């Protein structure tokens, strides 16, 4: 689990609920018509805006935000350099057994093409297409939450208008003004909460996860091309370590 994301969500919930409880109480902010307008309306609009197959996986995307796939880049660099040492010493065909044992799907795919003797330009092109399409899919999934944030805010304002109309129509009945005003204000509150605690933050973290994966794949591409070219493992390691911050650039040759 990503500790930062968990702590952030917990703190947001704690602070919001705590502030409500310290005021007039949480129960005042629970309004079913506002839920129907803001949450129900915005989610329904999402079904219009995106493909059903994307919407069916929305909980999967939330799971990625809270429990992402972890890429240990220093370990990956060490593995690629070890492959380079073996390939330079025994020939690239000696990596055939490593291909079958490699757990990283993208690295296994690249190694397999290199061992099969594919041209470097073809390997780079195919792997870059894979990387770019994966990044596009992940960004598209993040767009769902960005759109939800925008729609929730819009439906919150729509609920405010509905509540104001109901209030103005029934101005002669004082008992109806309170419920109508509650809908008018609480729908805006719900829209703001959805947009600023769920929609925008999750969209942002999903894009960060996508960039992490893209970085890993770019590193693998450079490693595979260098292995196939027979580059010096020390030179390859120096190249790959440049993907890391200076404080984490630890050479296995030192």
What does this structure look like?
This protein has 254 residues and is mainly alpha-helical. It folds into two domains: 1-29; 31-254, no CATH class. The chain is 80% helix and 0% strand. The protein contains ten helices and no strands. Helix 2 packs parallel to helix 9 and helix 4 packs across helix 9 (174-229). It is elongated and about 90 Å long.
What is the compact description of this entry?
The protein is built from ten helices and no strands. The protein has 254 residues and is an all-alpha fold. It has two domains: 1-29; 31-254, no CATH class.
Main traits of this protein?
2 domains; mainly alpha; 254 residues
Please tally the β strands and state the result: 0
- What is the beta-strand fraction? under 5%
The class by helix and strand makeup works out as: mainly alpha
Tally of helical runs? 10
Based on the structure, what is the oligomeric state of the protein chains?
single chain
> Helical amount among residues, as a percent range?
over 70%
Computed over alpha carbons, the radius of gyration is 26 Å
Distance between the termini: 33 Å
What pattern of helices and strands is seen along the backbone?
A: HHHHHHHHHH
How would you describe the shape? elongated
Q: Please outline the major beta sheet.
A: none
* Domain module tally: 2
Q: Report the mean per-residue pLDDT as an integer.
A: 88
Spans where pLDDT lies below 50 across 5 or more residues: none
